[in-house]
Amino acid sequence: LVQIIEKKECPGQDKEVIEKVVDFLDEAGEVVRVDNVVSVNPCWLSQYAIGPVMAPHEMRWHAEAPDGRMTRDEAEKAIKQYLHDHKIRIRLNVDTVLKMLEDLGFCIKLEDGSYMFPAHLSPLKHLCEMWKKEEDKKVYVGRRHFCSSPFIFSPGTFCFFQRQACVEIDKLARMWRNVIIVAKGEVASTYAQCLVTMDKHLRAVDFVARGREGSESQCLSLLNDVTRVWEYIVAKHSPGTEYQTGYLSRKHITEHKEQIAFYSEEVVNDGKKNGPSALVRVVSGGEEVVDTLQDLLVLLPVQPESSKVVQAVLNCGQ
Description:
Blueprint: H1 2-9, H2 15-28, E1 32-34, E2 37-39, H3 42-54, E3 69-70, H4 72-85, H5 94-103, E4 108-109, E5 115-116, H6 127-130, E6 137-147, H7 157-168, E7 174-176, E8 179-184, E9 192-198, E10 204-212, H8 216-237, E11 243-248, H9 250-254, E12 262-264, H10 265-272, E13 279-284, E14 287-292, H11 293-296, H12 305-316
Antiparallel strand pairs: 1-2, 3-5, 4-5, 6-10, 6-11, 7-8, 8-9, 9-10, 11-12, 13-14
């Protein structure tokens, strides 16, 4: 692109100026730049390259993508079929297209070379089969991010979140439509899981972390990591959405209730004045639910990983 501009469009123009202009146009949405590849016509890119791969299942030219997975050859077949059906004679490099999709956050490249497209994931029919009660899981902690009326989280936000959670937290995360389970920890004593689900109305997201007895710090650390990724994705892909944080009832998430009661930040903050044994109450489904602040782990400090490293280095000098 720089060579074309230098030689044909603006002879003698400084290369550095061209680079800055391309970056500016990328930020403005007039072009799409991923690494060293620039699409000077994003509409063309969307229709002829991204569209055939990302189209809804109802589209007849959509490639088969069981469990949201698609191989490179399946992606190439989908694109070529679309171009053929619409009598469009152009050449596309499928590897470049898939690289752009990956860098734009639409898919995840897996270790076997195939691609995972969160937008094509099947719904999970029975959550209880994938998030079963386990006798050794004694610690539970949960949060809820819920939209203030009349806001909702933008469609597609959860797909981008799934991709980012895989990249930052757990490459082996299990995913379904609007559901993801991530894990962290190499050994049983530090192992923790986190279930994240979005409601069908796109108004609330629940985060539930669990682990073995004594793993409160690990569970809370994983919960914080996951919610941090979610907050980053919301700010990027659902800007302006106003939402609040709630604290899920430990009683309900431990019992794997379908309808989970939660406490608002205001209720929890009022309870903090009375210490960790303070009771918080809420009425949910005609039932009064009661937990203690200690159950909700709102008073437990979490030591950042960087702080642990600092302390370890200082310990070596003692």
